[in-house]
Amino acid sequence: MTSWSEFRRAAPRIGAIFERRHAATGQLCLLATTRSDGYPRISPIEPTIFEDELWLVGMPGTTKFRDLGRDPRFCLHTATVDTQVGDGDAKLFGTVYHVEDRERQARWAQDLFDRTGFDTRAEVFDPFYAVDVTGASAVELTDGHLEIVIWKPGEEERVVRKH
Q1: 79-138, pLDDT tens digit by residue?
Q2: Long-range pairs for 113-122: beta carbons < 8 A, 24 or more residues apart
Q3: Least confident among 40-54, 70-84, 93-107, 148-162
Q4: Residue 64 has what pLDDT?
Q5: Which long-range contacts (C-beta less than 8 Å, at least 24 apart) are formed by 155-163?
Q6: Structural domain of 53
Q7: Where's the Pyridoxamine 5'-phosphate oxidase N-terminal domain (predicted)?
């Protein structure tokens, strides 16, 4: 599994764009999963970077979490509001895995409460999904040119520049 800091070292530009856009939207991202009929589903989600991992946690019983329970693959896209992508945008690809660590869940809920005031400290999260990033890409405007940054595990970021 790839920790967040490992991902940031391997893909520093994509990680920086993801973190910048994630923060700018109040952590809002769009999550792509696969429905039971094989069609794609797009759902809003507020992923969290906590204890050096990226987490996809939310209201239990939602269709997006049922999708991930069937097929752990996903795409996570930073919420784009600027059609010119002046601040860039990023996509992370990967799989989720359920973490059955009640102490970690309690620390996560306390961190959420400390940051936002939203109190889930009495909740038990099932599922409680951590992310393994298996690929990523980002776009950014640089000197008036669109640059597409691509990363795969074991490789360095590579840039495709569109004129």
Answers
A1: 777 777 778 899 999 999 999 999 999 999 999 999 999 999 998 888 999 999 999 999
A2: none
A3: 70-84
A4: 96
A5: 156/10, 157/10, 157/11, 157/12, 157/13, 157/14
A6: 4-162
A7: 27-112
CATH number at residue 126: 2.30.110.10
Name the token pair of 111: 């961190």
What are the tokens at 149?
């940054």
Rg (CA), the chain: 16
Per the structure, the count of domains in the chain is 1
β partners of residue 151: 136
**DSSP class per residue in 91-160:** EEEEEEEE---HHHHHHHHHHHHHHH----TT---SS-EEEEEEEEEEEEEETTEEEEEEE-TTS--EEE
How many C-beta atoms lie closer than 10 Å to residue 77's C-beta? 17
Q: Decide if 136 contacts 90 (C-beta within 8 A).
A: yes
